[in-house]
Amino acid sequence: MKWEFKNGVPIYQQIIEILHMRVVNGTYPPGSRIPAVRELAVEAGVNPNTMQRALAQMEQEGLFISWRTSGRTVTEDVGKIEELREKMGSHFVEELFTGLRELGFSDVQIMKTVKDHIEQQGVESLQEEL
What is the span of the domain harbouring residue 94? Predict the structure, then answer.
């Protein structure tokens, strides 16, 4: 995932969202070492203090663990990572429903649209359940 920032949302919050995605999608697997603050700041094109603020938040959430001698690592608590994954997934579904409702779709139409999309993608195992 690229470091692309939008106006109107504090950069450190956007960094946290990107880091969340990287943990959930396995870019940073459980127990893996996270690049140093300065390295991530350069990669993202942000001030190191901004990156430090985001990383500190990740530590408060229990997703990153700071070690004196070896930097930061991702938690090995896969339950915590799965919980974040589910929370993020729910957020994306909520955004989908909100956007389609703004277009005038009913919930039934939204579900039909999702089902049609799944069928077009050829996801047979889900077709049977829907």
Answer: 79-129
